[in-house]
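Technical annex B. To support the medicinal chemistry partners, we prepared a structural model of the target in complex with zinc ion, based solely on the information shown next.
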Amino acid sequence: MFELRKEADFYYENSDWKNSSKCFSNIIKQDKSPQVYIKLVKSKIKEGQTDSAKSILKEAIELYPRGYNFYRLLGSLFYDEQNWFEAIIYFEKYCKIANNKARSEVLQKLKASKENIRKHLLNSEPNINKKNKEKLSFNTGLISITYDDGRLNNYQFAYPLHKKHKVPATFFVITDRLFDNKLYKNFLSLSDAYEVSNFGIEISSHTASHDGTRLTEMDISKLDYELKSSQNLLKEKLNIYTKSLAIPYSKYNKQVLSHASKYYENIRIDGNKFNHPTNDKTLLVYSHPVRNTTTFEDIKKLIDQAATEKTWLVLMLHGVHDKQQKGAYDCDVATLEKNSFIYFIAR
Ligand SMILES: [Zn+2]
C-alpha cells in the first residue's frame, strides 16, 4: 500500500495523469481520505475523464458533506460544460460552507452562472419589465405569465416548472408579506424571492399591503405609500429595480394611474384583452385571468390568437395547487404541467 501511494504521488507530481489516475483508483478502495479523493479527481480531470470525476466527487460529498473543495470542483466541472443550473447549486453550497474562506474565483463564476441563466431565460421569452419598449417589435406573438400575491405555492409548484422548462414569469408580490414571513407563512419569504429572481423570475410590485382597500378608495398619502414603499423595499432588500405594478383587484381610476405612473411604467390590470404596440410612456398592460375552470384548451386558444395576430398576451394567475380544493382564481399543477401550457410555451 505504502509503495503504491509513493508510486501514485510520483506520477501525480510528474503530471503522468493516466498512471496517477490508475494508481489512485486502486488506493481509494482502501484509503478514502479527502486527500486521495482530491488527487484522484484532479488526475481524472487532467486525463479528460470529466464524467468519472463528477461521479467520484458526488461520492466524496456523500462521505464528506462539509468538504467544500469537493463542491467547488464539481461546480467548476458543470461551469465548464455551461450547465449553469448545476454549477450554481454546487457553488452555492461551497460558499455556504467555505464562508469567509470562499475563493473570489468561485464567487465570480457563481455570479457569471447566474448572469448566464438570466440572459438565457430573458432571451427565450419576452418579459413584462423589458426596459426598452421599442425593442418589443411585435413581429411575433408575445406571452407573459404573471402570478399575483407572491404565494408560497407559486414557489412550491409553479417555480419548479418554470425552471424545468426555462420559461420566465413575473411574480407580483405584496411587499409587507414578503418582509414579514413569520406572520405571512403562506407567502414567499425574502430568500425565496431572491432565489427565484436569480433563475429568471421577475419580482414586481403588487403594492405594499393589499389589505382589502381598493387603491381607488385610498387617500393620497396611503395611495402613495402603497405604490412607492413596495418599489423601494424591493430595491433596498433585494436589489431589484422594478417598473411594473399589478393593481390589486384591477381597480383604478385617473388618480390611481397618475400616481402609479410616477413610479411605474407598466401597470397590469385584468380586462381580457390582448396588448398592442404603444408609444405611451406608461403602459396599461391588459391580462387574461386564469380561473379554476380555465382549461388548457382555453389557454391554447389565447396563445394561438396572440401568435396569429402578433399581439402580446399576458396571463394572470394566482395560487397553484397540487390538489383539488382551490379558489376561483387558482389553478392546479396538472393544468400548468400535465396538459402543460408552460411546456407548450417552452416549445
Ligand atoms: Zn392580488
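Notes passed to the chemistry partners:
The mean pLDDT is 86.
The domain at 125-346 is CATH 3.20.20.370 (TIM Barrel).
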